[in-house]
Amino acid sequence: xxxxxxxxxxxxxxxxxxxxxxxxxxxxxxxxxxxxxxxxxxxxxxxxxxxxxxxxxxxxxxxxxxxxxxxxxxxxxxxxxxxxxxxxxxxxxxxxxxxxxxxxxxxxxxxxxxxxxxxxxxxxxxxxxxxxxxxxxxxxxxxxxxxxxxxxxxxxxxxxxxxxxxxxxxxxxxxxxxxxxxxxxxxxxxxxxxxxxxxxxxxxxxxxxxxxxxxxxxxxxxxxxxxxxxxxxxxx
Length: 236
Prior knowledge:
Number of helices: 6
Helix content: 25-40%
Distance between the termini: 22 Å
Order of helices and strands: EHEHEHEHHEHE
Low-confidence stretches: none
Strand content: 5-15%
Largest sheet: 4 strands, mixed
Radius of gyration: 18 Å
Strand order of the largest sheet: 1-2-3-6
């Protein structure tokens, strides 16, 4: 939806691809990139940090996008800005977008909705129109350093009785937290609680402990109960 009005040729670099060698991906000053990451605990997920750092920006313009589940994105945008600068990119704009919470899906359920889609399309048009002049300076980016401390959440998916060991989750886990030899198990130290394994499991055999999920939902109810809006960071 964000690029819908853009006519430029588009190529996707998927940061979820654990086996890809990102150090071989290089951009140029003529390129325009959209660096989109989810906000987990107000931070950029560690696998995304590691992979972005391997990219060669070479002065390419980049639009920062942080997607969060209606609580807050805290220091995610600033951390993303710093990582991209270190990798040689040139930030020109930023967007904070709300989406359905990845763990407790009752929060921001159904988002992005029609209002979000229209708004994000308009953001895309505004950024595209100002690409020749806009630049995003660090002091204009929300967040603090040192970044917010985040050591993960206790909600780690595990396989139930319906697991047949097909290995789909192991092959597609972005953090490498599931062994292909024992896909019914989860390495809780590596797991980033992205819940991708739950979404892609053909048997719907992977789940989060219901009691832990209920406690988490109660904790987040106040912070996530009110609709948060998308934000655009653009200075022309």
